[in-house]
Backbone:
């Protein structure tokens, strides 16, 4: 289990991480969500002991994260990059060596992973000769090859096409079955919604929401409806029944007042716009995210 | 420590495989040989053909005697070194005679000519006029010839025995001999010591600058693609710093080894003076110490750069510091015991290059060698500490260069 207690990190006047406390259990994916500049990356760097916090502590299975634990941590940073001029297998070997692996083991594992991610043919090629997606796969391999206990993935899906996103998703779920502690930092809410069972939403270094996804949805609660439409839905702005709404392409997610029955709401809007579909829903993570951040501001 | 070795191995292998390194490995000595050895070879080498030299003696007093004096110089194959032509014609004005003679030089009919004329107050004015003025060997000979001639005349007019005149004319040269142990002579004069020292100092400087730039650039790559985050979450910054310094030092040593082999084979070909290698063990020691010192400094200070321009700025400032002692090369050679040189050989920044020079020029007491080596080792340890701290923060520092105040805070943590 990973425990983060009262973590604070300041840069000059700015509190990048402000008294953050959370814990991550093995076998579940922990989603760390937040808008740009919320302090996700700083939190990750502090967990990894790349930067020292001003106060607070990070414990992995009860031990502080120091160099002795480096070998049991895997990290995929948001900004990707590898030694461009070097051979794929050399880069994997170097970074795996740094994680304390033995040469024979590296060879076996590297081949296994290259095959698993469907790129064994690039083993002897230079990194710069690979496409961006394939370079990212190499980087993913370097994060997981040493079978880490704690795996931190910062935006693991960005830059992948849907097929490869699915591939990486499957691999991550596989790793989960092996009882790993996985932290996934992202602002792709739909991905987080599908993968994460625990969520921590932060903004300006502070916790905004935390807990299991279902708990959060319950807590956030309220009366939510979604409908597909043709026409103009500007009238939603003027309706007293509406607390807030989000528009997607040709469908809208609306938070209506608790006392308003959804069918009454439907009756009201059906005259104003062509409704193709109407459903009562749980709020999506995206809606929760946007509302929470807006409310705080 | 194991991880530091992993880093060192990677840095060494990846760089030694790069084309830039392989090219520089062979190009650098070629350039050094070209610039330091060739000119001396060419300058001291006798020309192998007779030169046509004119004499325009407006005083009409010296032509025949000067001609005889100059014609005593012979080439290796016993041909006269100079063929003398009289440029004087009576009933032509001095101005037009000079113009005609100048024209002959320009048209390559003459290699040059000596113009002898009366100066102010009855003094003599002699010029050697030619297209190029670099030919100091010829000029020295003409000077000697003319002075011999004047002495001879003066003495003859005073009725001195011609035999005595011959004795006076014979010059004695002072040979410089370097003593290393009682009764044991070092070989080589000023020029040889100068060139053999300068080769090593040049090598040291070029290597440090080259590998320093390579290092800062590769760190910049790691920083800009955030590989540094993976590295620092895999090993400690100290491991990374040590690894980089070790790897680069190994690379430097490989380079020196290759260059030594080239150097030794050149001795075989009698191009490089043997004295360059008399104190090779000490030279190498100072070389390595200097290299490690500066490399560590480069790693620490270079880590704060986050753009190519900043990296260039940093490396060029550091390089300047490194090149500074070369200003003192001549004065060190002329006076290796001066207090300035003594002071410079105790400042870690200048110590390696000054000591390489001093070792070559004069024997140095063992206590001084030991104390300078200790100073160097001590300075390296200090620099490792300081660089380690700057590095710890520098590698994660993006944006504008940190101020001195910020760096001070880093050093305190």
Residues:
């Amino acid at each position: 289990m990973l425990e983060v207690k009262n973590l604070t990190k300041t840069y000059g006047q700015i509190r990048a991480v402000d008294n953050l406390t959370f814990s991550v259990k093995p076998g579940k994916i922990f989603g760390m969500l937040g808008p740009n500049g919320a302090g996700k990356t700083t939190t990750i760097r502090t967990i990894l002991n790349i930067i020292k916090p001003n106060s607070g502590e990070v414990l992995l299975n009860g031990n502080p994260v120091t160099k002795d634990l480096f070998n049991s941590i895997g990290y995929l940073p948001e900004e990707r990059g590898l030694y461009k001029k070097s051979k794929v297998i050399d880069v994997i070997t170097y970074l795996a060596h740094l994680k304390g692996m033995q040469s024979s083991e590296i060879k076996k594992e590297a081949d296994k992973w290259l095959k698993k991610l469907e790129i064994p043919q690039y083993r002897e090629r230079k990194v710069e000769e690979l496409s961006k997606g394939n370079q990212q796969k190499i980087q993913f391999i370097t994060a997981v090859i040493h079978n880490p206990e704690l795996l931190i993935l910062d935006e693991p899906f960005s830059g992948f096409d849907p097929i490869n996103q699915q591939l990486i998703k499957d691999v991550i779920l596989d790793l989960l079955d092996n009882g790993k502690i996985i932290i996934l930092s992202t602002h792709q809410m739909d991905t987080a919604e599908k993968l994460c069972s625990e969520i921590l939403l932060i903004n300006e270094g502070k916790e905004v929401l935390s807990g299991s996804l279902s708990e959060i949805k319950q807590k956030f609660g309220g009366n939510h409806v979604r409908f597909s439409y043709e026409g103009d839905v500007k009238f939603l702005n003027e309706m007293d029944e509406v607390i807030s709404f989000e528009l997607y392409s040709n469908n809208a997610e609306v938070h209506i007042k608790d006392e308003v029955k959804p069918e009454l709401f439907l009756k009201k809007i059906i005259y104003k716009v062509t409704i193709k579909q109407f459903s009562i829903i749980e709020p999506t993570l995206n809606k929760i995210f946007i509302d929470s951040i807006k409310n705080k501001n | 420590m194991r991880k530091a070795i992993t880093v060192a191995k990677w840095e060494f292998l990846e760089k030694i495989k790069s084309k830039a390194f392989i090219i520089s490995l062979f190009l650098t000595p070629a350039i050094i040989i070209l610039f330091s050895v060739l000119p001396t070879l060419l300058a001291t080498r006798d020309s192998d053909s007779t030169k046509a030299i004119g004499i325009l003696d407006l005083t009409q007093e010296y032509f025949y005697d000067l001609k005889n004096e100059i014609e005593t110089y012979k080439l290796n194959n016993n041909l006269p070194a100079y063929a003398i032509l009289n440029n004087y014609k009576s009933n032509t004005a001095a101005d037009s005679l000079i113009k005609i003679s100048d024209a002959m030089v320009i048209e390559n009919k003459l290699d040059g000519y000596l113009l002898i004329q009366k100066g102010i107050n009855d003094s003599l004015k002699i010029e050697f006029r030619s297209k190029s003025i670099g030919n100091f060997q010829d000029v020295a000979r003409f000077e000697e010839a003319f002075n011999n001639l004047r002495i001879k005349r003066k003495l003859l007019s005073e009725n001195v025995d011609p035999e005595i005149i011959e004795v006076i004319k014979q010059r004695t040269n002072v040979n410089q001999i370097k003593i290393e142990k009682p009764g044991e002579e070092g070989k080589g004069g000023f020029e040889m010591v100068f060139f053999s020292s300068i080769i090593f100092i040049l090598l040291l400087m070029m290597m440090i600058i080259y590998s320093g730039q390579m290092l800062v650039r590769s760190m910049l790559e790691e920083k800009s693609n955030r590989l540094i985050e993976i590295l620092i979450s895999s090993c400690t910054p100290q491991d990374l710093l040590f690894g980089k310094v070790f790897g680069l030092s190994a690379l430097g040593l490989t380079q020196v080894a290759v260059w030594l082999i080239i150097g030794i084979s050149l001795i075989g070909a009698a191009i490089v003076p043997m004295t360059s290698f008399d104190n090779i063990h000490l030279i190498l020691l100072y070389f390595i110490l200097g290299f490690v010192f500066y490399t560590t400094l480069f790693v620490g200070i270079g880590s704060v750069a986050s753009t190519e321009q900043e990296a260039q700025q940093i490396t060029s400032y550091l390089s300047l510091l490194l090149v500074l002692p070369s200003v003192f090369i001549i004065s060190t050679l002329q006076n290796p015991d001066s207090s300035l040189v003594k002071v410079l050989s105790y400042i870690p920044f200048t110590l390696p290059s000054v000591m390489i020079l001093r070792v070559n020029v004069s024997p140095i007491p063992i206590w001084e060698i030991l104390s300078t080596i200790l100073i160097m080792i001590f300075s390296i340890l200090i620099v490792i500490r300081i660089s380690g701290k700057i590095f710890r923060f520098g590698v994660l520092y993006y944006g504008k260069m940190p101020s001195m105040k910020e760096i001070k805070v880093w050093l305190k943590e």
In short: The longest helix of chain A spans residues 162-177. Chain A touches chain B at residues 45, 48-52, 67, 70-71, 73, 75, 77-86, 90, 94-95, 97-100, 142-143 (CB under 8 Å). Chain A has nine helices and 14 strands. The CA atoms of residues 263 and 280 of chain A lie 9 Å apart.
